[in-house]
Amino acid sequence: MFTRIARAVAHKRIAIAIILVWLVVVGIAAALPRAQTSDQQQDFLPSTDDSIRAQHLADDPAKFPRGNSLVLPLTVIFHNDNGLQQADVAAARAFNDQINDPAHRPPAFAGFSSIFLADNLQPGQALPSDARFLSSDGRTLTMTVLFSLQNEKQVAKGVEAVEALLKQQRGSATLQTGVAGPAVQISDANKAFGNLGNKVTLITVVLIIVLLLAIYRSPILPLVPLFSVGMAYALSAGLFGVIARALGWKVNPQSDALTVVLILGAGTDYSLFIISRFREELRQYESKYEAMWHTMANIGEAIASSALIVAVTLVILVGASLTFFSNLGPSAALAIFCMLIAGLTLVPSILLLIGRAAFWPFVPRYGEQHSEDRGLWTAVARIVARRPGVVAAATTLVFVALALGSLGLKQRFDFVSNFPASFPSRQGQELLEKSGPQDVGKLAPTEVFVTSTDPILNHLDQLAAISTSLQQTRGVASVDGFAGKTAQQIEAENRSLPPVQRSIAADGKTARITVYLNVDPYSTQAMDLIKDIRAAARAPVRGQQLTVNVGGTTAIQADERSDSNRDIALLGPIILVAIGVILGLLLRSVIAPLYLLGTTLLSFLATLGLTVLIFQGLRGQTGIQNFVPPFMAIFLIALGADYNVFIMSRIREETLREGLLAGTRKAIARTGGVITSAGIILAGTFAALILQQLELLQQIGFAVAAGVLLDTFVVRALLVPSIVLLLGRWNWWPSAASRQQAEREAALATAGD
């Protein structure tokens, strides 16, 4: 098949036709709608999760009416390390009065609650000890502003308006104010993600141009991969937009940026391997058409296998519980598939039309000899060939030592900690933490929903029992529930609140109990408490016709952690088996895929250990974001197999011609430069993420870039070739190549005698 493709693209008319077809198809794709984006955590969890069922109850307009949109809370914070002064309380009251004035209400305003409204406090009246709004130490006073989530930009404007109003208040000299909570996180996310894809693309493109200019010193060559990648991405984005909208999928802005980086890096790599082999063949053949035919005939299968490995890995992610990954999988896989088509058709067509001029001013001439006796990779090849056992042992020990660092891994699920220290949501959370963990719990309360088929107040005894059970649960600071309340009291309380804040649903069949934790609700410790809270909430109603669902930010994070662990345990082995099968088919071997996957896993663990040492050790961060290890595994295992394909296919090609030792040395010398160049470019594209504001992207960028560099400079250049030399003909067992190599080695030994 690849021979026929090679023959097809090695003709001028066909090359022109291919380019014209690409221009027309991409022009159509550019007019198609793009996939919708969302950075809401609940949009990326299975609908069957308990926390998402609870979220659906909270969002149900028949139960807690809120117009045609969701409602996001914002916590306004007044804090004084020395205790709130009279001037501080006056400033808080002034803010309370202003935001309740229609003339000062911010955009997307949907409701407000405070201690002044709840207790009808008069000016000068002392603050009551209210666990909901006042901290137990009297140093922090909070209020809640609700925003309608019809438009995220309007929410961001509303948050800015609240911040501006807050800055106008004048309390004592030691008063500190801030804002926190989901609405502020939405606002900060808009800042962080605003134009993220374009910024990442621009940085990556500049890096690719600089690196290609440094490698090939040609002003023309960098344009070939960039144009081809751009065409492939435009086509995939248009096609995926149609698919996503038809299926109701939403794409996270971070995963969208990662898809851009992936196709830029992988697409440039595929182009680089074609460019490198074309330059090599131009020295062997006078006709550029003949040179291109040999280029694609020799490298087409390797490129297809490489892209297939990455695409299959990504497609398997469709089975992930977390839709963050299950939506990323098909979008990125489609991008890689489009890049494969571009690599087999568009890249060679462009190179063919430009010909030798593409390499100007260092044009490869027919008959030039490719020296194998000098250069860095020739020296590396000699070292590996001379001491394969020592090289394999030394590199393995270094990787094992780095891998030990992964034992100190601490996963972090707190999205707020992603933001820079200057962002309001992070400053607000840190301000609230000053009054102790029992007050931080107010940032993101846990909500327990109890649903019945008949009026829920018919089950007041059970509601009171649930409230009491929750109050007695480990880690719970306080509960807004039903213990000690009559039906008349509950109905009176609900009449004074907006529908979105009521404890009894509008249809009368669902009750809401609010639980405040005494630990940071975004912490791992809080997630560990959710299991106990669910058990405590369900114990009093066991065997009765009541349904209990536990939701809120902490519950969502706990379910996210559970889903993520399930995805790794289930999909990890499937991905490894799929990659092993593809490698086995390409190399016609059972043995080679085993050690190739082993070295890839070792490289992944070493990179994870290095990432832990850098971010948790040197930079003093509290942990690694929970999405980083899965992303590392996906990209490093798939891309590591990518380079395995190129080095092993060339080793197989050369050893069958020249024998094991000479063939391996030649393969290292011929491919070492291009593989490491490709690795540098791919690492550079992911390193662009380090320059972004979010810690998640910084950690992913560093981890993948470091892993790719370890892969290309150590694993593919040293460890894999040394294992090949140690195994000899068993590399290709049970294929005919194993017997051919054994016969060739025997013939060479006889000739030597």
Task: Describe the 3D structure.
The protein has 753 residues and is an alpha+beta fold. The protein has 4 domains: 1-21 and 194-325 and 338-359, Multidrug efflux transporter AcrB transmembrane fold, CATH 1.20.1640; 66-190, Alpha-Beta Plaits, CATH 3.30.70; 382-412 and 571-753, Multidrug efflux transporter AcrB transmembrane domain (Multidrug efflux transporter AcrB transmembrane fold), CATH 1.20.1640.10; 445-551, 2-Layer Sandwich (Alpha-Beta Plaits), CATH 3.30.70. Helices cover 63% and strands 9% of the residues. The protein has 25 helices and 12 strands. The chain has helices at residues 2-9, 12-30, 50-59, 86-99, 115-118, 152-167, 182-193, 196-216, 223-247, 253-284, 288-316, 323-354, 376-386, 388-403, 424-433, 437-440, 460-471, 487-495, 524-538, 553-587, 591-618, 628-658, 660-687, 695-727, 736-752, and strands at 36-37, 70-80, 109-113, 140-149, 175-180, 250-251, 411-412, 446-452, 476-480, 510-517, 546-551, 624-625. The strands form 4 sheets. It has a 4-stranded antiparallel sheet. Strands 9-10-8-11 form a 4-stranded antiparallel sheet, with helices on both faces. Helix 2 packs across helix 9 and helix 11 packs antiparallel against helix 22 (628-658). The radius of gyration is 31 Å and the shape is elongated. The two termini are 42 Å apart. The model has no long low-confidence stretch (mean pLDDT 83).
